[in-house]
Write a structure and sequence with these properties.
By secondary structure, this protein is α/β, with parallel strands linked by helices. The chain has six helices and seven strands; from the N terminus they run αβββαααβαβββα. Helix 5 (about 120-140) links the parallel strand 4 and strand 5. The longest helix has about 40 residues, at about 175-210.
Length: about 210
């Protein structure tokens, strides 16, 4: 009887864990920040904490270049939006069955068109609007959104000199769907490995038979 209680308790714990949600919070502004949490555990994954050397003081801050800012300066505002959207699209396509279970609890995106030339700022504003809102419409169809905490704005700043992208988000996904997706990926890789092994064995067998003159 005690063994049965232990088994039932173990099953209950597993069910609670699988039905609990993994939370991902993040922001993109002057820097990129992403934190992952599960139950009482939280860990910052971006930026990664670095070990300090003996020559560095404990309170010394190491300034790193902002990748988003570098991308905007190099390729422009619209091209940066398209590149970021392409990365998100690849992630969503690779896990399309899991994406529909993602719950977007908060999503705030503010795209600001700005340059030293007012005409260029106006053109940039129109191009950004033409890209951002169709992308948002596609994302709204894929995931479960909290519309009350969803805000997407495209603004123009004629007094600024550099365009900006500011994003703040919080999404949740039950651990069950993550485990299911992981098993699906492992199963797919295993099938590919088996097919490749069978193909190699067939080729080796044919080579051996050819050498024997069969």
């Amino acid at each position: 009887m005690i063994a049965l209680y232990i088994i039932l308790g173990f099953i209950a714990v597993v069910l609670v864990l699988l039905l609990s949600s993994v939370t991902v919070k993040g922001s993109v502004n002057d820097s990129v920040y992403v934190k992952v949490g599960f139950l009482f555990y939280q860990k910052t994954v971006v930026p990664k904490p670095e070990k300090q050397t003996e020559n560095e003081s404990s309170d010394q801050e190491i300034k790193k270049p902002n990748k988003i800012r570098e991308l905007i300066d190099k390729k422009g505002l619209v091209a940066t939006i398209c590149e970021l959207a392409g990365i998100v699209k690849d992630i969503l396509i690779s896990s399309c069955k899991t994406v529909k279970h993602i719950r977007v609890k908060r999503f705030i995106c503010v795209v600001t068109a700005a340059s030293s030339d007012p005409h260029k700022t106006a053109m940039m504003y129109g191009e950004a609007s033409a890209v951002v809102f169709p992308l948002l419409r596609g994302l709204l169809e894929l995931m479960k959104w909290n519309i009350r905490k969803t805000k997407v704005l495209v603004e123009s700043d004629f007094s600024g000199d550099k365009p900006r992208i500011e994003i703040d988000f919080k999404v949740k996904l039950r651990l069950f769907y993550i485990v299911k997706a992981a098993f699906g990926v492992l199963l797919s890789l295993l099938k590919k490995k088996i097919r490749q092994t069978m193909k190699n064995n067939t080729v080796n067998t044919q080579n051996v038979n050819n050498k024997k003159g069969i």
